Amino acid sequence: MKAYIFKRILTTIPLLLCVSFLCFVFINLIPSDPAEVALRVRQTPVITEEAIEEVREELRLNDPYFVRYIRWLGDCLTLDFGVSYTNPSRTVLGEISRCLPATVWLAGASLLFVIILSLPIGFLCAVYQNSWFDKLMRALIFMTTAMPAYWIGLLLIWLVSIQWDLLPTSGSGSIRHMILPAFTVSLTYISTYIRLIRNNMLENMKEDYVLYAKVRGLKQKNILVRHILKNSLHTCIVAIGMSIPQLIAGTIVVENVFAWPGLGKLCIESIFNRDYPVIQIYVLLIGTLFVIFNLLFDIIQYLADPRLRGER
Amino acid sequence: MNDKEILRVKNLVVDVKGKNGKRSEIIKNISFELNKGECLGILGESGSGKSMSMKAILGLLDSHFIIRGSAYYKNMDLMLETPEKLRSYRGNDIAVILQNPMTCFDPLFRMEDQMKETWQSHLNLSKRELHEKALSVLRTMQIPNERDVLRKYPHQLSGGMLQRITIGLALSMEPEILIADEPTSSIDAITQFEIMKEFQKIKEKCGTSMIFITHDLSVISQVADRILVMNQGEIVDMGDFKHITTKAQDEYTRHLVRSKMMVMRQYNQVLQKGETL
Ligand SMILES: Nc1ncnc2c1ncn2[C@@H]1O[C@H](COP(=O)(O)OP(=O)(O)OP(=O)(O)O)[C@@H](O)[C@H]1O
Ligand SMILES: [Mg+2]
């Protein structure tokens, strides 16, 4: 068991290296010259060849590619992500850690929405398969998958904040500010998970162990909750591990719609300002989160399943 | 229903509602009775409706299926009982053993929990009593290291051992009727032999009324007092083993017997060849 976990952790190291390398390469593929961008941002009046060369030296952009990558990676490992091109008085780490909490809160609230809505709805849809409730939910799911998040966000602002005047339209500061953006982010995941839980449960209902449970006279409620639901959630574990970083990354659009001061907003601003170090670290962070959550939930699934655990 | 009978199935029909609203008959008007202490064998090929009849009687079919007819158990028509009443009969009055013991148990629970669950659904026992009962079932079925076995998960036990546990569980409620649905067909030959010995023992010692479902003529010959042959949802022949093998009226039954005999002959030939080599 320990061997498996150890091995699994080891395999993430090359994966993380790949992520970081891709991250580095892609940013460097962008056609505009970061030195020139840095000069513009610093509002240098005349941009001369010499000035560009100076900044290239300053930012050490003249070194060979691979050397720059290794240096960058080494810096990253010591959490030294450099300074923002846009505003040299700010470090990238400072920017990221300033915006991260807001995004984590938003993603956390979204996850909460996903769990408290999709679990009971998915369960009921499976138990009352093809009932009016199931059909209604399926229609709603179909509709939400066809609508982009920002559009739903705008609709919600219009309906809930403007028409009904129930919640603030944008900004942050209280739980009330969080409800609409969190709900908007969670919407696509809610439909995914309703479908996942419903279909998993329907699949499990066909299993032999359910027939045998019925044949032994177990109570229907027990069979549904203790056995079918538990087994269905087991197959959701890995999916949740993927959804958490997706939620964090997925706030990018919604944060801008709701002016939520998180990573997504920072990322978009950095893209407009061509603030490469920030973009790079944002992408690296999201990539790393994917790898880590995947690892974490793989291990959770492994520990939760007696067959995988290989108990003897 | 007379005193001798424990179960009487009358004009049982099961229709299934297809996707396009079409109905097809899976069970076409079958009637039979099970006498007290008797072992009734139901023989039929795959898809002939053996399991379906059992599920219909136990109230295990969902609303896709339309069931008509009656199944009298102790002068009560099971087809008219409430779901809760039927549930309380299942496992308690009528116990069932299924085909594949390896997939019968929930893979996420320890054997002890799954065994206890059965009794908790019917009896009011303390934790201690439940534990003792679980141990005693394993002892009765002569399973070694019973304390360890209780702590194991299903995948850690062999098919033969799991099937012995399901048999032990079924008998532990002292059911009036025991239904075995192909209990040996997914088990290797040696274990099959042991499991069949268990059934013979049940027959001799407990005198439980039994319905033994199988597609295997040789297996059924070992336990059944009376055999009922099913084909495409109908009962096509009925009688004891000798009657079925020699005097069957029905063309299908004769075909079944003939092909079985042929397999046995081939098998014997292979054996003889093996000896001469
Ligand atoms: N859910 C279902 N919907 C429609 N038809 C079904 C369904 N389940 C089973 N059937 C049909 O009912 C018939 C009888 O099935 P049943 O499971 O009773 O066969 P069986 O005699 O037990 O065979 P086996 O030896 O394979 O267990 C089959 O022809 C099958 O196609
Ligand atoms: Mg069957």
Topology:
The complex is a heterodimer of chains A (312) and B (277).
Chain A: H1 2-29, H2 34-41, H3 49-58, H4 65-77, H5 92-127, H6 132-146, H7 149-163, H8 175-205, H9 208-215, H10 220-257, H11 263-273, H12 276-304, H13 306-309
Helix pairs in contact in A: 1-12, 2-3, 5-6, 5-8, 5-10, 6-8, 7-8, 8-10, 10-11, 10-12, 11-12
Chain B: E1 5-17, E2 23-35, E3 39-44, H1 50-57, E4 65-73, E5 76-77, H2 83-89, E6 94-97, H3 101-104, H4 111-120, H5 127-140, H6 146-151, H7 159-172, E7 177-181, H8 189-206, E8 209-214, H9 217-223, E9 226-231, E10 234-239, H10 241-246, H11 251-276
Parallel strand pairs in B: 3-8, 3-9, 6-7, 7-8
Antiparallel strand pairs in B: 1-2, 1-4, 4-5, 9-10
Helix pairs in contact in B: 4-5, 5-7, 7-8
The complex binds adenosine-5'-triphosphate (ATP) and magnesium ion.
Overview of this protein structure:
- The complex is a heterodimer of chains A (about 300) and B (about 280).
- Chain A contains 13 helices and no strands.
- Chain A has helices at about 1-30, 35-40, 50-60, 65-75, 90-125, 130-145, 150-165, 175-205, 210-215, 220-255, 265-275, 275-305, 305-310.
- The longest helix of chain A is centred in the C-terminal third of the chain and has 38 residues, at about 220-255.
- Chain B is an alpha/beta fold and about 280 residues long.
- Chain B is built from eleven helices and ten strands.
- In chain B, the strands form two sheets. Chain B has a six-stranded mixed β-sheet, with helices on both faces.
- In chain B, a hairpin with a 2-residue loop joins β4 and β5 (about 75).
- The longest helix of chain B is centred in the last third of the chain and has 26 residues, at about 250-275.
- Chain B is globular.
- The chains are: A mainly alpha (about 300), B alpha/beta (about 280).
- The interface of A and B includes residues 209, 217, 218, 219 and 305 of A.
- Bound molecules: adenosine-5'-triphosphate and magnesium ion (MG).
Short overview:
The complex is a heterodimer of chains A (312) and B (277). Chain A is an all-alpha fold and 312 residues long.
